[in-house]
Amino acid sequence: MATTATHHQDMTEISKFDNGSTVFAGDNIIDKNKINKYPIVSNLGSVVEQVSNGEVADAFFSIATGAVPTPPSKILSGNVSNDGIVDDFEGPGYVTVDADKITVTPPGEVVYGFNTPYTQLEIVPDGIDIVNAKSNQTIGHIDPSSMNNDTIPGNMISVENIEYWYNRAPQGSRYTVEFCLDGFNDNRSYVTPDELREKFPESYNYSIKYPGGSPVLLYEDNYTEVEVTSTYTYLDSHPQYNDANREYNAKQFVLAWNGTVIPSNTYGCGREGIGFSAVPEKEAESGMATHGVCPPARSLRNAVWSLGFALPIGMDSGRDAVLYGYSPSTGIKINNTLDYPIKIQMWTEGSGPGMEIHTVIYELIPNSHRTNSTNSTNGTNATV
User: Fold this and answer.
1) For the whole prediction, is pTM greater than 0.85?
2) Distance between CA atoms of 375 and 226, rounded to whole angstroms?
3) What residues contact 160, with CB distance under 8 A and at least 6 apart?
4) How far apart are CA 167 and CA 156, in angstroms?
5) Contact status, residue 170 vs residue 123, Cβ threshold 8 Å
6) Which of 48, 85, 304, 351 has its CA 20 to 30 A from that of 107?
7) What is the predicted pLDDT for the residue at 2?
């Protein structure tokens, strides 16, 4: 009677990937040379399985050497071939390595994570250490006297910004220069900046424009952008606040929010690094205010309101839509309560007090679900 090996082996010894790692169709995820082998005389069933699976070369090798490896069926499951090759599916799957099996799960229709510190600079007595924030290990050092673009990891932060921080911050302060994506909605492990650059360039280019904690789409299945609401407003004239300055700030608000994507049931904000022109304002706690951001903020606020969203953090329900003390870009946070991600598009038309400020929101709906969508309002509203 044929028998089969039942010996246990730690799957981490065989897997080429850590638990939760992102993989693609065609990736080889196991090292077959590291699979335990057992005497063929007591494991003839494994040879029979090799032959029945068409693994003739492996069967001949087992017979010739007198040793047969643990059958793939005992250690692999879910979208992995007997050779350890990830099956053909669209998008980034992920590996699960548990005590007995190695499994690959295909992606869902939407995969997103959050900007999370990965590479940080830390001020130390003799300069600046480069620290991996995930492992909290020092991986390099920078001499401030010879700092340049080549010595600073990533491409998010300029040398001037680092020098400004270094000359003013206390010992032990940290500055994030690279984000990874972590906290994924499907519980996969984090994706490093290098992996983002290489395999998900669009996600990488998006992530470096937004602050820590921002949601970033890694993958979305075949989908259609469905317009669900649109609004517009006018800049109007308030010469006491300098209309030219107000127009500049309004356009900066639009720049900060145009193209922002917010997954379902998450909060999102505008882009980082958008400058606004502030002027003295006695009512503001800081003594400064960015007049001109309220007209586009009203357009955006009313657009999300029309979708049933709550009043965004950092906004007021009145004409002065942006609260003092909140950045018009990163301080305002919108909670998407629709079933699918939304994409915000904003633009201006014309100039001066009559400049129009438009907001259109699209819902990114997988094509397989479009016939069931009931979220669309297709409304157009003027706000003043």
Assistant:
1) yes
2) 10
3) none
4) 19
5) yes
6) 304
7) 43
**Residue 45 to residues 39, 41, 74, 83, 84: CA-CA distances in angstroms?**
12, 10, 12, 18, 20
- CB 364 within 8 Å of CB 343: yes
How does residue 5 score in pLDDT terms, banded at 50, 70 and 90? Answer: very low
Q: Cα separation of 225 and 373, whole Å?
A: 12
Residue 319: both structure tokens together:
């004409």
Residue 113 corresponds to which tokens in the numbers above?
Answer: 């994570």
Instruction: Find out whether 335 and 312 touch, Cβ atoms under 8 Å.
Output: yes
In our burial notation (b when 16+ CB lie closer than 10 A, e otherwise), range 331-354 reads bbbbebebebbbbbbbebeeeeee
